[in-house]
Each structure stands twice: as C-alpha cells, then as structure tokens.
C-alpha cells in the first residue's frame, strides 16, 4: 500500500514539475505599462519609484501592522504572562528576576548545528546586501530585514541558548523604535523639502543626499528608508520569535515545578 502511494505521489510531482517547466519555456510576458515608463522618461529611477515613491505609504502601513503583531505577541506571551506574581512564588524567584532574558532551552544535534551556522551567516549577509542594494535592485528594507531575522531565528532554533547570533530583547526594542522613528522623520524631511510626506529629494543645496556614482545619484533618501525599514522589520520579527521561544522556557519551568510539588 505504501509503495503504491509513493508511486502515485512521485508521478504527481513529475507531472506537476513538467507542467511548470513547459509553462516557463512557452511564457510570453506582457510588458504592460512598462512600455509607457520606458518610452517616456517619467521618473529618474524606476526601482526607487516603485519601491518607495509609489509605495511609501504602503510600506508605512506594513510596518504599523508589524508593530501591532509584535504588541499582541508581547501581550499574549510577554509581560502579562511572565511577570505574574504566582510564577515567582512557584519558582521562588526574586522580584528582580526577568524571565524574558532566560536562555535555558535545549539545542539540536551537531549535524543540524553544522548546517544551521553557515546558513544563518549567509542569510544575514544576503539580508544586509538586499537592504543596502534596495535602491538599485528589486530588494529593499522589508525583504532584507526579514532575511536577517530568519537567520537569527534559524540560529536560535538550532543552537538554543548557546546561539552565536543573539540579540537581547532590550536591544531589539531600541532597534525597532529607531527604525520606526527614522522612517517617520525621513517622511517629515520629505515634506519640508518637497511639500509631500515621504517625498524623495536627491539634493540639499546642490549636495547629493546619498553619496553614489553619477549614474545613480537619483536614489535620494531611498537607501536611508531601506535601512530604517530593515531595522524595523529585523527587530519586529526577531522580537516575536524571541517572545515565542521564551514562552517555551516558562512552560517548561511550570511543568518542572508542578512535578516537584507532586
């Protein structure tokens, strides 16, 4: 029975993969409005325009959604759970003990750690590259920040409390606040320079805002927006993962205490 099922699954995957390859080989992409943009020099930098000139408010909304998600995680798994007095009574912990910083959960096998360590480094490096090159490539701060946070989370999963990539929760709080505040302030600067919130200005008194080769001086404040968004997303996703992992620590401590009481 198992062999027949495996055969059916293998045939299904083969048909599905062959269909995708056939579709890609015969694909004809409709250029759409791209012809208009290329025939008429509307904006100096199309990548920057698409990422932030036309989607800056969308990115701002996404960041606010992430803030709300982290706040909900904090309420459910954070201080409202860890600072309850009954926990400290059960564990006989002093009032100054901060359960959020406890790092006492286990790790995985050496094989998992051997693979996870270089993968985490590569993910962080790729995330940094995506953030810094977001004004000339289809990348950006949100994607790069998510990649860096993924490297951090992968390292936490593989190494547990001995993770080589570790951010203190207070450091993550400051980083997230810095990213959100930086994005808002850059938007205000665009309002003063161009009359519109998040307006992308390229020069101040003839001095380029972002030092770059002459061919890409049109980046303006886009690289800075990418950096602060990357910090915001990195800190937000890492904080959520941090809270979820610390919840595991508390549950384990409660279970052990109940076993001792029995």
UniProtKB/TrEMBL annotation:
InterPro entries: CPA3_antiporter_subunitB, MnhB. It is found in: Cell membrane. GO terms for cellular component: plasma membrane. Residues 111-238 form the Na+/H+ antiporter MnhB subunit-related protein domain. The keyword ATP-binding does not apply. It is a multi-pass membrane protein. Pfam families: MnhB. Keywords: Cell membrane, Membrane, Transmembrane, Transmembrane helix. PANTHER family: NA(+)/H(+) ANTIPORTER SUBUNIT B, NA(+)_H(+) ANTIPORTER SUBUNIT B. This is Na+/H+ antiporter MnhB subunit-related protein. It comes from Methanocaldococcus vulcanius (strain ATCC 700851 / DSM 12094 / M7) (Methanococcus vulcanius).
